[in-house]
């Protein structure tokens, strides 16, 4: 996955603009913590600007996508964090847990260095309900999707105190997997696909076939006949969750 993000990280900053409504929910969850470790921090999305932040990520390309100097950045992996015990009041991570090769070891490290933990993640039991898999069914067989941890999995490894629903706005600015649920045409854009791991990692031929399926469904009116009602919704619960854990 590090190799993948060395590739898709080249366009990440253009299509993965933090959505301020989601950011506000995450910052509220961090509460009064003054020092924060952003694990899998990459391009710096969702980092609070009013706290001391250190970001760790294995991908140099992702770290180079940063447009500010808010955080100290360290190249490294969750499973071997180069920090002393209790170095941070809180740790955070967004859309990262399903990419960790060893979730248990990574979360043990996070608990070691941070008193509280806040993670934005996707509950995989919702995956079959996402209309995008009708056109790209191979998504469900991707290794990082198959090993994506559930809320229950995380709860078995962290002292979870709260699980919050994270509604996805219809005009979400961050191009993560479910972001364009009400704007299907955007999934046809190569730049969007390149910044979205569930599509970027697909073999070129499979991705092209899925793109043709979706384009045909849109041009024929098939998509709108089945899913067009979504275009009028303000937000949707697609399975994204904010996990609060620790003291």
Keywords summarizing the entry:
alpha/beta; seven-stranded mixed beta sheet; two-stranded antiparallel ribbon; 11 helices
Walk me through this protein's architecture:
This protein has 247 residues and is an alpha/beta fold. Helix content is 35%, strand content 19%. The chain contains eleven helices and nine strands. It has a seven-stranded mixed beta sheet. A two-stranded antiparallel sheet has the order 7-8. Strand 2, helix 3 and strand 3 form a beta-alpha-beta unit.
Structure class: alpha/beta
Task: Detail the poorly predicted runs.
Answer: none
Mean pLDDT score: 91
Strand order of the largest sheet: 3-2-1-4-5-9-6
Largest sheet: 7 strands, mixed
Number of strands: 9
What is the rounded Rg? Answer: 18 Å
Query: Terminal Cα separation, in Å?
Result: 31 Å
**Count of alpha and pi helical runs:** 11
The rough form would be described as globular
Helix content: 25-40%
The portion of residues forming beta strands comes to: 15-25%
Topology as H/E string? HHEEHEEHEHHHEEHHHHEE
Task: Please summarize what this structure is.
The chain has 247 residues and is of the alpha/beta class. The chain has helices at 2-15, 20-30, 60-64, 103-113, 132-135, 143-146, 151-155, 190-194, 197-200, 204-220, 222-227, and strands spanning 35-39, 52-57, 72-75, 88-94, 114-122, 160-165, 168-169, 235-236, 240-246.
